[in-house]
Amino acid sequence: MTDLILTGASRGIGFALARTLAKSREYRLILVARDRARLEALAASIQQEGGQAVVVPGDLSTLSGARALGQRLAELVTPGATLVHNAGIWPTRRELTVDGLEMGFAVNHAAPLEMQQALLDAKRLRRILLVSAGLLVKGRFDAARTPTGEDFSSIRTYCDTKLGFALAMRDVATAHPELDVLVLHPGVVRTDLGARTGPMGWLLSLVKRRWEAPEVCAERLSRILAKERWSTPGQARWWVEEVEQPWPPVTEDAATQRAVREVHERVRAMG
């Protein structure tokens, strides 16, 4: 039995994936989210069904919180673990964290990388799966403006931050050829991500009725996790659902790649 760290486990795709993986008995699930009560209820249900689950509450809205979470996880998990980056938000207004970062950039990009670093330093990971989004093709990452949300958009900021994290994970794969790294568009899934109030929220709720349920997506993710290998050493792969695809052209732009690296170095230097 291997350890599988699952962020964003308290709702949506993460919740459904935890329930699905518990049935396989192949993993000890390390459940990560901010809501301790929801995590504990989920862990109890998994254990009642014969699975194993450990609750690790954590906050990805601050760099210090992310780093502390990474240290706790590094002390808990055994070598050969799988990390599933699933936590994410779709902000509808600009909000800055205590670090002065735009909230979407912090949660979707900077903090997960900082959390992950402790696990890499401790050599705990064998595989990393990033649950990303096909909308990264609409991203336009700006090193000067995106981290602080000066280019904030209730639509495009989500795309920008997903693009940034995907590019950062490509660099992680290059730096750590021992890892198996996959960046995935999981499908169009009916969750509360990006929920809004008013007429736009009502319209979005109608559209989402046609999208697939989180449980359907979770079954797909469990099949992907069951594959022996996703990538070649030193290279992250991009999949759309269960099919490998060429990386989108926006991810091959050299200026965007440099911008993401520049920002990552700045974030690493922040106390």
UniProtKB/TrEMBL annotation:
Key word Oxidoreductase present: yes
Keyword Oxidoreductase: yes
Pfam families linked to this entry: adh_short (PF00106)
Keywords: Oxidoreductase
Protein name per the record: SDR family NAD(P)-dependent oxidoreductase
Record-linked InterPro entries: NAD(P)-bd_dom_sf (IPR036291), SDR_fam (IPR002347)
Taxon lineage: Bacteria, Pseudomonadati, Myxococcota, Myxococcia, Myxococcales
PANTHER family associated with the record: PHOSPHATIDYLINOSITOL-GLYCAN BIOSYNTHESIS CLASS F PROTEIN, PHOSPHATIDYLINOSITOL-GLYCAN BIOSYNTHESIS CLASS F PROTEIN-RELATED
